[in-house]
Amino acid sequence: MHRNLNLAWRLLFRSLFIRGARAYMRFMARPTPAAFDKVKIVAQNQRARFDYFIDDVFEAGIVLTGTEVKSLRFGDGSIAESYAEVKNGEVWLVNSNVPEFSHGNRYNHEPKRPRKLLLKEREIAKFHGAVERKGMTLVPLSVYFNGRGRAKVELALAKGKNNADKRATTKDRDWQRDKARIMRENG
Fold first, then answer.
1. Does 3.40.47.10 match the CATH number of domain 37-186?
2. In angstroms, what is the C-alpha Rg of the chain?
């Protein structure tokens, strides 16, 4: 009994000192990450929240070439008229514009090519089901670089608004602005 306990302690200390703090971290709870760590926002879709009811928001990676990354780092790019679609179990960002890099010469990319988005299979299945059955749309809200320097897309599962809904949204937004102005003026 005493010998087995001594052996267990030796193994624990060996794993702590040989492997470092990583072995100790296995037993501790990990902190929850922030919602989306947006360090540098490259492009935003301003019309998306006006034209759609936003249901769920996801973060997706983008498969980019070198000149596309450099062009995005300079702040160029637009997702104003873009959308995402599910094809053959993959999600593609369609009609997004990343202009050619100024110093890219023959290695430059095509500005409006479809770009593959990196998501988990469960998320892709959820998107596929929502688009097929519920008539929802995949709308990119923003393109940004996270804290690790990776290009990401904030992708939303959304339902289109009709004209009456858009008028109500405008009316509500105007009332909120007027209410804030009145509160500022009258204390």
1. no
2. 24
pLDDT at residue 38 above 80? no
Domain boundaries, the chain: 1-32, 37-186
Looking at the chain, the number of H-run helices and the number of E-run strands are: 6, 7
> pLDDT tens digits for 2-27?
556 566 666 666 665 555 555 555 55
* 119 closest CA partner among 148, 88, 155: 155
Write out the two tokens for 40: 């540098």
Token duo for residue 6: 């001594």
Q: For residues 71-86, give the mean pLDDT.
A: 88
CA proximity to 72, closest of 151, 149, 141: 151
Distance CA 131, CA 119 (A): 16
Q: Which amino acid is at 110?
A: E
Torsion of CA 7, 9, 10, 13, to 10 degrees: 160
Which residue in the block uniquely carries the two structure tokens 């369609």?
A: 94
Rounded-to-integer distance, Cα 117 and Cα 137, Å: 15
Q: How many CB atoms lie within 10 A of CB 166?
A: 12
> 52: burial class by Cβ within 10 Å (0-12, 13-18, 19+)?
buried
